[in-house]
Amino acid sequence: MKTASPFSFPVSPALAAKLAKLGLTRDADLALHVPLRWEDETRLTAIRDLLPGETAQVQATVRDAKIAYKPRRMLTLTVEDAGGVLGIRFLHFYPSHTKLFQPGETFRFIGEVRGGFLGPEMVHPRFVRAGDDTPLPGELTPVYPTTAGLGQAALRKAVQQALASPLPDTLPPAWLAKLGLPDFETSIRTLHRPPADAELVTLESRRHPAWQRLAFDELLAQQLSLTAARAARRRQRTAPLPARHRLTRAFLAALPFALTEAQQRAWSEIAADLAAPHPMRRLLQGDVGSGKTVVAALACLQAVENDFQAAFMAPTEILAEQHAKKLTPLFESLGLACAWISGGQRKTQRTAAWQAVATGEAHIVFGTHALFQEGGRFRQLGLVVVDEQHRFGVGQRLALMEKGQEPHQLMMSATPIPRTLAMSFFADLDVSTIDALPPGRTPVVTKLVSAARRDGVLARVRDACLAGGQAYWVCPLIEESEKLQLQTAEDTFTALSTQLPELHIGLVHGRLKPADKQAVMTAFQAGDIHLLVATTVIEVGVDVPNAALMVIEHAERMGLAQLHQLRGRVGRGSRESVCVLLYEQPLSELARARLRVIFESTDGFEIARQDLQLRGPGELLGHRQSGLPMLRFADLERDVALIEAARDWARRCLAERPDVAAAHIERWIGARQALSSI
Ligand code: ADP
Ligand code: MG
After folding, report:
1. Which of 8, 131, 212, 627 is most deeply buried (CB count within 10 A of its CB)?
2. Mean of the per-residue pLDDT values for the chain?
3. Separation of CA 54 and ligand 1 centre (Å)
């Protein structure tokens, strides 16, 4: 029985399965499956001109072929051309090979040249039988990214077949002229089969116009789908929550400080969104300590003023509880009731809490994302606040939205998203930025200290704590094993308890029972614990202003965003804070670069920008978990101008030529469109 091929040409089910593994399920996918690199088979090099390290093609005649057994079984050839002799080795070969390489037969070999003991050699070159009259190809040979069991030859053939059909442009020629970009068909064909005289350097650096065209197309598709998603959201209806100034004003009056200008700006943007009859989807970003929580609290109050409930979610129990503890008394003083829902709660408590939520007795609910996994009901949910949004991942964002009627949503992130990233991946969100810290903060002083000088650091911790201060000691991150991580935390705790007997020391880590975790945090907050030994669980949101000293062990193992977040735990009070980064020698290049950035800058945006440069956008977005489609052609650093152009053209395209938008999205995103509109 023949299965219908998803392609315009026949493909065996086995091949189709392998192509599908690479995400190639349509002709268009194959056309966009561009080479990783190219090999130059358009020229022959004389053996005497071969240079070690370079990839070259020779045409040579077999002089001798034999199977050697030292150091292991292999087929070795000696081949020659008019001016030189070349050794060739095959470590894996079939009996057919020995028959093929008869003395006197001529082949073309292409491979990397090595300087061997007995002259130049190639190991496992590709080869074809050839005579002097065999023509050389006029184009470079593509080498495609592939998967196990799918050879270059089969993949090349499939791509060639897909390219046999015409590749109509999705964009009008007049637009391309304005953008100064080549047409789609030329770009695609150039990348798959560059002409023999193409400059490999420009091609490989991706600055070639053909690359630029694809990068633009990709960014445009992203902008189109996100802009369309945003427009669709604007068409959705939800209950407007206009400002009534009853609770918000009372709350502001009770605060011991005035909002900064930056907070005020963000707040008025959010208040306006809430008043609109379609669901808000706004990201509130601001550096650690910039005061996002107060703004989010105001948003909750505006929902409650309208007789709706608000849910305040955080990614960890510790953080959710901090929010609850901090905000509940403030809300209660306004006559409101709060509920706290946690996985570690006793069942009766939780049932009671959900009861209060379902009846509407509770106005504001605090919890982790478990809030939306438990299937509990709200009487009337108007707003969801999601703190540290980047920790949730897109999947959870989606789960939240599938809960029926769409509430307004405010996401907060202390990992500042660089402008280009915000413009591309978060184009469906509205963004408010708190770009200044509240006044009266003394910047944290960062010190880099070699682990060899740990004793001096211990003395410093002792002195600070005995003088009435408090400190954090952050244990090294052990990514490979949670068990080891735990072990390290416990060992550190034991060691520090012996080394600093005069201090009260506490330990907090991810595996602690919620009640125990809570007890430790409460004691630390109350000042009963001097020194808190912690794993990176304290990375987000913990707020103890009296703690002005932090030591981070093996700082060289941590990422920039993580270090910045951790450091943000100190510097919250009025006294000068210090963050000591202990590092172990020798430092890798990347670790050195990271430590330099964190040492030199306290500005989260600058750090995020550097991070983007060091790591690439994927890790910053946490896309491995989120499943966000990544950019294959565009580069957020290199292609800033293209991102801006794509954004402008996307708006124009949707307004003037929805047909163009549809065709473009179809080619570039196809079935994946659903993902990017989350
Ligand atoms: P974020 O969540 O952005 O990291 P928080 O909202 O936790 O920051 O605020 C950090 C600290 O700054 C809190 O102790 C908060 O009470 C305080 N704070 C917030 N806004 C102001 C302000 N306008 N003036 C003075 N202190 C502020
Ligand atoms: Mg916070």
Report:
1. 212
2. 86
3. 59
Total Cβ atoms within 10 A of residue 302: 26
Q: What is the DSSP pairing of strand 381-386 with strand 364-367? A: unpaired
Q: How many whole angstroms from its chain centre is CA 664?
A: 25
Spans of all domains in the chain: 13-38+145-207, 44-135, 246-434, 444-601
Burial 331-345 (b: 16+ CB within 10 A, else e): beeeebebbbbbebb
Predicted TM-score (pTM) of this structure: 0.67
Q: Which residues surround ligand 2, an ion (CB under 5 A)?
A: 541
Domain 44-135 and domain 444-601, same fold? Reply is: no
Are the C-beta atoms of 108 and 57 separated by less than 8 Å? yes
**Helix ranges, 341-481 (H):** 347-359, 393-401, 419-424, 454-466
Tens digit of pLDDT for each residue in 224-266?
888 887 888 788 889 999 999 999 999 999 998 999 999 999 9
Identify the nearest ligand to the CA of 441 by its number: 1
Position in ligand 1 atom list of the atom nearest CA 434: 3
Q: Which of 433, 443, 159, 465 is nearest to 282 (CA)?
A: 433
Q: Which atom of ligand 1 is nearest to the CA of 288?
A: 4
Contacts 24+ apart (CB under 8 A), 562-565: 562/477, 562/536, 563/594, 563/598, 564/288, 564/598, 564/604, 564/607, 565/288, 565/414, 565/415, 565/539, 565/540
What dihedral angle (degrees, nearest 10) is formed by the CA atoms of 662, 667, 669, 670?
Answer: 80
Q: Which class in CATH covers the domain with range 444-601? A: alpha beta
Nearest to 412 by CA among 331, 279, 268, 315: 315
Residues linked to residue 470 through DSSP beta bridges, in sequence order: 547
SS3 of 396-416: the string is: HHHHHHCCCCCCEEEEEECCC
State how far the alpha carbon of 115 is from the alpha carbons of 72, 85, 118, in Å. 20, 12, 8
Ligand 1 midpoint to CA 293 (Å): 7
Fold (CATH) for 246-434: Rossmann fold (3.40.50)
Q: 387 C-alpha to center of ligand 2: Å?
A: 7
pLDDT of residue 69 exceeding 60, the answer is: yes
The residues near 94 (Cβ < 8 Å, ≥ 6 apart) are: none
Query: What spacing in Å lies between the alpha carbon of 438 and ligand 1's midpoint?
Result: 7
CA–CA distance, 286 with 431 (Å, rounded to integer): 10
Cβ atoms of 661 and 170 closer than 8 Å: no
Residue nearest to atom 24 of ligand 1 (CA): 438
Give residue 568 CA to ligand 1 midpoint distance, Å. Answer: 12
From first CA to last CA, the distance across the chain in angstroms is 39
Nearest CA to ligand 1 atom 6: 291
Which is the closest atom of ligand 1 to the Cα of 291? 6
User: pLDDT-based confidence at 639, cuts 50/70/90?
Assistant: confident
Residues within 6 Å of ligand 1 by CB: 257, 259-260, 263, 286, 288-294, 414, 438, 543, 572
Q: Torsions phi, psi of 550, nearest 5?
A: -135, 135
Cβ–Cβ under 8 Å, residues 278 and 237: yes
- Distance, in Å, from the CA atom of 373 to the CA atom of 403, rounded to the nearest integer, reads 10
Percent of the chain with pLDDT over 90: 50
**Would you give the DSSP letter of residue 179?**
H
How many angstroms separate the CA atoms of 186 and 169, rounded?
10
